[in-house]
Specification:
The protein is an alpha+beta fold. It folds into 2 domains: 77 residues, RNA polymerase II/Efflux pump adaptor protein, barrel-sandwich hybrid domain (OB fold (Dihydrolipoamide Acetyltransferase, E2P)), CATH 2.40.50; 202 residues, Chloramphenicol Acetyltransferase, CATH 3.30.559.10. It contains 11 helices and 19 strands. Strands 9, 12, 15, 16, 17, 18 and 19 form a 7-stranded mixed β-sheet that branches. It has a 4-stranded antiparallel β-sheet with strand order 1-8-6-3, with no helix packed on it. It has a 4-stranded antiparallel β-sheet with strand order 5-4-2-7, with no helix packed on it. The protein is elongated, with a radius of gyration of 29 Å. The N and C termini lie far apart (65 Å).
Amino acid sequence: MDIEIKVPSLGESESEATLVAWEKQVGDAVIEDDVLAEIESDKITMEITAFENGVLKEIRKQAGETVEPGEVVGLIEAGAAPAKKEEKKASKAAKVELEPKAGATVKSVESGAGKKMVAEAEPKPEAKPEARAEEKLAEEKPEEKKLKVAPKPAPKAGAEPSGDLVEERVPMSRLRRTIAKRLKDAQNTAAMLTTFNEVNMQPVMDLRSKYRDAFKKKHGVDLGFMSFFIRASIVGLKKFPAVNACIDGDDIVYRNHFNIGVAVSTEKGLVVPVIRDAGRMSMADIERAVAEYAGKAREGGLLPDDLKAGTFSITNGGVFGSLLSTPILNPPQSGILGMHKIEKRPVVENDQIVIRPMMYLALSYDHRLIDGREAVQFLVTVKDVLEYPAAMLLDL
């Protein structure tokens, strides 16, 4: 019985995707849950997996082609087993007559196709691994070889061009095209403005150092910085609801829930999985969600629903060494908080110059909806909560 390989649902707002590559080829054995192919939508990369054991019988869509949800891209012959290599060789050898027929000469047997068949029938000396790999690649069909060859990596920064090659043109991935369009749309649509402040990270760092081991032992997850920033942001969003709101036509939609998007950088581009209803989550729950989504994003395991319904976003350029930046809004959201590198700087406390681990904070916001006063006070609230974390724990 043939089992249809169908493109999974891509989410409400997406109607097509690109088939990136096949992980199995026609004739390959397939086990339930094996990854068969990889597709890329406007937002994420997804895997098509097998639902039954069998053999991949047919491929209907090739790498690079556009596919739609529910479309059949291939067939699996359920319950079938692939032919063994030894059986295939024996079948070929059976068709070859080693002894020439009457009237035939040795030359006629060894010329053209006959020579090739004799070579296949005769035992060969054990080849080196490198030679076997080259031989296998040469025997593949052209379309199969094209799918299995990995794409050429992008040139490294500062590398000298080889020969006459001075530039290389490659098509943008669907995800990269979508990122480019959304970011430009955000700039063209929103009246985007950024306000800055700085926060002394010493209190948070002291708290983490003191309770990190106990936190990990009790909850089974590391105590990172992101949970502090998410909780501090939620305190600010409760005080200034406009930062958590959005514009819909001529209306303003105020949300009484806090779905916080956390930007994650992957090899294919930036994605923003959403931690739903973060206002009701503990610090441990938030840390678990952050770790889970970050892992899924980098492994290509995010689902369309993981990226939906965000009300506010946080991005951390500090992990790459950024000292200061102006993050771009993630429409239709009206605010995004930018974290940056922690750096020791001289600051004044009680009229004394001291060294403290400082971080610049940036809030980009839609000025059509959020006034400067609200934006500045929101950022001050985040700063105050981080510098006095006990107030957050005591709900002050």
